[in-house]
Design brief:
The structure is a homodimer of 260-residue chains.
Chain A (H helix, E strand, L loop, with lengths): L1 H54 L14 H8 L2 H20 L9 E5 L9 H5 L10 H9 L7 H12 L3 E9 L3 H10 L7 E5 L8 H14 L3 E7 L13 E4 L9
Parallel strand pairs in A: 1-2, 1-4, 2-3, 4-5
GO molecular function (chains A, B): acid phosphatase activity; nutrient reservoir activity
InterPro entries (chains A, B): Acid_phosphat_B-like, Acid_phosphatase_pln, APS1/VSP, HAD-like_sf, HAD_sf
Family (chains A, B): Belongs to the APS1/VSP family.
Chain lengths: 260, 260
């Protein structure tokens, strides 16, 4: 009788005890999560501000992604948000093309595309180089470009074909060096790009210029040859800014590196 | 005896039962959260892409914030992230000012500031108008501006004073109408701004021009008067783009409205 009562008591204590145990564990988990959130939110805000100010062209000429923001940039550049942001930019170009341009159809309507991170993605390269967190090593980057393994940015490939089908001449103006021409052409064709009118790469004579000036010189040449540049699509402000400009310009997101 | 055994059995069942009940509830909560996350993430990606493409100047001339994104823009414009993004832009101006400019100190060094959402915040007004989700009603907005109750953007106020203390002349170029001059001056002084060299507002003669052209005309006038414009700070691309430009321009975030 006594042993039974004791057993009942023990079971009662166990029941009540287990409920309180659960309660305490839940409280501890909650407290821990809240703590982690606060500190990780501060870093997230800081790194997101860095990224946004790069996109706004307020932060310029950076050599590397700040060490503490490598994970944030990696997360963005490999996210559905990066794809969504790029696709929305492409969608806005489509919208613009439906209303913008009284195309003359005389072979002088032109559109300019940047190559890297506009037509082709360099993410597979930067994935091995801390997503911009390591200072760019030109020879290692060029070795990768020589392998012609850069994938297409699918949304840009679709736009490229739509613009070409409108009879607009497409000019690719890239800061890649002339020595990479055959590898670049192979890469572009392998992933589905063909039918461009010009592919401008940097010759030795262009290397004394900053990239923005070099790209302006190319646009000047096109304008002097009677082309009407309806638009520019690029991931760097240096592909878009300066004179002569285009009727509209479109900036794709890219916070892994800065080319001036 | 039998009753005791029965009681022991009941307590055992209760103990085991309570554990399984907890387990099931936790599983249900987890499943529900995952479901909600997927759908809300899609809308979040969509609205964040809209906002980013506004900041990149890929989306232009919008009348209202898309209805489905009002909550997202409200969340951003009232967030620590908006403050962090703005403060980082201001911090980059400070950095630029330490190295950019061989100030002549001849009274011809100049800096241009936009007024709304650069020096003063219109968030208290847009808070009552769906954060840009309602088409702007000029007379209701001007009535609010007449009340001179716009708060300062603290980080810009600090920068304003630092630039002034360097002996750089500050010019405020705003798309507010000339009829709002006294209310604008009262508001600026009330919140701590003073000592600017010029406050340019839109006269009747400027109303045939788009805001960007009007602001370019003002910069032309400054340049013709011998001023060196070291920088422009504004929240709209129309405050920053066009010729003559400044040595550097800085864009503050604002996705509530678009002024062309």
């Amino acid at each position: 009788m006594a042993t039974n009562s004791a057993l009942i008591l023990v079971l009662l204590v166990l029941c009540i005890g287990s409920v309180f145990a659960d309660w305490n564990i839940l409280k501890q988990i909650k407290r821990k999560n809240e703590g982690d959130e606060t500190s990780s939110n501060n870093l997230k805000n800081y790194c997101e501000s860095w990224r946004i100010n790069v996109e706004l062209n307020n932060i310029r000429e950076f050599d590397v992604v700040p060490h503490e923001c490598i994970d944030h940039i990696k997360k963005y550049m490999t996210s559905a948000q990066y794809i969504a942001d790029s696709e929305r930019a492409i969608e806005e170009i489509r919208l613009y093309l439906t209303s913008c341009c009284s195309l003359h159809g005389d072979g002088k309507d032109a559109w300019i595309f940047d190559v890297d991170d506009t037509l082709l993605s360099t993410i597979p390269y930067y994935k091995k180089h801390a997503y911009g967190g390591e200072k760019v090593n030109a020879s290692s980057l060029e070795a990768w470009m020589k392998s012609s393994k850069a994938p297409a940015l699918e949304h840009t490939l679709n736009l490229f074909n739509e613009i070409k089908n409108k009879g607009v001449k497409i000019f690719l103006v890239s800061s890649r060096r002339e020595t990479l021409r055959s590898n670049t052409v192979d890469n572009l064709i392998d992933v589905g790009y063909h039918g461009w009118t010009g592919l401008q790469l940097r010759g030795l004579e262009d290397e004394h210029m900053k990239v923005q000036q070099y790209k302006c010189e190319e646009r000047k040449r096109l304008v002097n040859n009677g082309y009407r540049i309806w638009g520019i699509t690029g991931d760097q402000w240096s592909s878009i800014e300066g004179l002569p400009t285009a009727k509209r310009t479109f900036k794709l997101p890219n916070s892994m590196y800065y080319i001036s």
